[in-house]
Amino acid sequence: MSGEELEVKVAGKATQGESVGEATSMMELLKRINVDVKPGVTLLVYGEPMVGKTWFSWRLAGEFARAHGKQVAVVATEPVYENRDFIDVMARATGTKPMIVIEKIATKIPFLIQRLKDYVIVVDSLGSIADWITQMLY
Fold first, then answer.
1. Which of 24, 72, 94, 110 could form a disulfide with 58 if both were Cys (CB 3.0 to 4.6 A apart)?
2. Please, how many CA atoms are within 13 Å of residue 125, restricted to the half-sphere of its CB?
3. Cα distance from N-terminal residue to C-terminal residue, the chain
4. Are 26 and 66 in contact (CB under 8 A)?
């Protein structure tokens, strides 16, 4: 962290300037900020574009999958997933080689998630889920 201020938002509460110390894994980092990741938990990762949400999600999913003897599946809605180089770079950068399921129709995502229930699932992006919820409401 080297003197940087850290803003952590957990359950709507923000804490500034607190150090979480050195963490050797994403799972350890989350434990240090009192986020309990266990089977059956949904974790939403959100933020500004280009801040590392996808990298963080892949890395965390990979660590969790290895700890629980599972594989990772990415339900991808972003066009970048059609680029094999992107997937290869992400796999090397995160140490995670997920099964990629490209789905551009948001209403199909809940059904995909049900079929992939034995995997640790990353849905990239939350915008697609928001679109699906909006369609269900109107």
1. 94
2. 16
3. 45
4. no
Residues in Cβ contact with 66 at an 8 Å cutoff, skipping those fewer than 6 apart: none
Please, is 48 exposed, middle or buried when counting C-beta atoms within 10 Å of its C-beta (0-12, 13-18, 19+)? Answer: exposed
Q: Nearest-CA neighbor of 95 among 69, 127, 63?
A: 63
- DSSP 8-state assignment for residue 40: T
Alpha-carbon distance of 27 to 84, in angstroms, equals 28
Q: pLDDT, tens digit, for every residue of 10-56?
A: 444 445 555 556 778 889 888 888 888 888 888 888 888 889 999 99
| b/e burial code for range 112-124 (CB count within 10 A of at least 16 → b) | ebeebeebbbbbb
Residues shown for the chain = 138
Q: What is the largest CA-CA distance in the chain?
A: 48
Beta-bridged to residue 90, according to DSSP, are: none
DSSP letter (8 states) at residue 43: -
